[in-house]
Amino acid sequence: MIQNIASLDRRRFLRGAGIALALPWLESFSTAVAGAAAQPSDRKRFAAFYLPDGVPMPLADDPSYEDWAWFPHGAGKDFKLTKCLAPLEPLRGETTILSGFSHPSARSVHGHSNADQFLTGANTGPSGEYKNTISLDQLFAEHVGDQTRFSSLVMSTDGGTGTPRGAQTLSFNRSGRAIPAENKPKRIFDMLFVKNDADAARRLALSQSSLDDLLADAKSLRRMLSEHDQETLDEYLQSVRETELKVEKAKRWANIPLPQVNVDHLQLDIGPDDPRNYLQAMFELIYLAFKTDSTRVATYQLGRENGVGASDYLARAVGFNLTHQLTHNTKNPDGWKNFGIYCAFISEEYGRFVQKLKSTPEPDGAGNMLDNTLVMFGSASSAFHLSRNYPLLLSGGKNMGFKHGQYLNYGPQKPQGGAWLGGREPWQIKSNHEDQPLANLYVTMLQRLGVETDAFADSTGTVAEV
User: FRET label pair with 102: which of 77, 189, 207, 457, CA 20 to 30 Å apart?
Assistant: First the structure.
């Protein structure tokens, strides 16, 4: 039978001897549709990266200020990167640096308590009752997640969920529950690219049957419960529905071969005790997941706040012992420099990831992958434990309308900072400047990503300058 090449699905396979091998995108297929090669892909991706413990913030009269302050000198398009961000100079035209943003509900809370709400903007508070809300990435995943094998890829160096106000994940579902993060490169690779065993379909069928029974029983039970218990049951049912959706999605993808990728250059059986190679493996896995269209949403929390967990070893990549100690030792000789050297290392690895996206042509579309990928990097604190003036980077997304090559400073002329010498910490001191709500930037990002919304968390508007 002769089949019109233009009618073939985007996912094509070589078949023979009982196996199916996924093909890369071939121009022969795209040019068969008139004008298809000239049309930009409507695919949009989002990745978010989180750095714990803030960044170097020496005061302007400190000798270290010129070289080791994290934020650039200057403003607009006329700015100079310090040594902290110098590895990003080749990507200057692809990146925007932002200052003067924070979440209003966190500004008077100790900086180590706020990773939980970096992507949610929720008022999780300094102590007591804890309730979070949906994170930015998961809201976008609700919009595009049904188009890929995995709705999102949630990663962190420490893995799991952590504790309330001590999150080890950036991602929270519609109910505000933490989504466990993966932290083992081999396991992430296997999930993305290694075929499930032959028994997977049977287990999926059993899961569906079990869920049907659960939902039927729950509907019958609900009529017998108090109002409070009904709320508890509804929360439980939400989890069941989310599982049901995952099972349905897994069934749809069960017989579609996984993409084939070359990872000979990666060390997958590795951990944070080899921090440079570990970070490179984690960044590369996100790149491969995007390149194969396995997902379009990814988060990676580089470390947990307060020096807890294996992530505190990352500074060993540049000759220091524990990462968190660098933030406390800025009062010592070369303290700012040492902290800055670590931040420059992180900038280098972030830049490597962004550059790889830029160097990769967009499959079945125009430009490169970075043009259709919005990448965000930041922290929920700037100076020592200070939950204001978040250090933020945006890269990519030019096909979504993002403008780069600029430093947008919405902060005070003299931001809080300096080494902590005892007494009241910066987060305990009232600010004479009010930051912009970070949620305003998030609304702008969501809109450019194609999500129809005018609000997120405590937003008051948008940020047109990006």
Answer: 77
Q: Which domain holds residue 96?
A: 44-186+267-448
Domain-located, residue 462: no
Contact between 143 and 450 (Cβ < 8 Å): yes
**Is-contact 147 249, C-beta < 8 A?**
no
pLDDT at 209: 55
Shared-domain flag, residues 308 and 399: yes
Contact (CB, 8 A) for 185 and 278: yes
Residues in the chain: 466
**Is residue 28 located within the same domain as residue 113?**
no
Cα gap 222→233, rounded to integer Å: 7
- In 65-135, which ranges are continuous DSSP H helix? 65-68
* Residue 208 and residue 352 in one domain: no
Contact present, 391 and 99 (Cβ < 8 Å): yes
- Domain-located, residue 458: no
pTM: 0.82
Please indicate, yes or no, if residue 465 is contained in any of the structural domains: no
Helix or strand holding residue 440 (H, E): helix 438-448
Look at residue 102 and tell me whether its pLDDT is greater than 50. Answer: yes
Report yes or no on 464 lying in a domain.
no
The token pair at 432 is: 């004479």
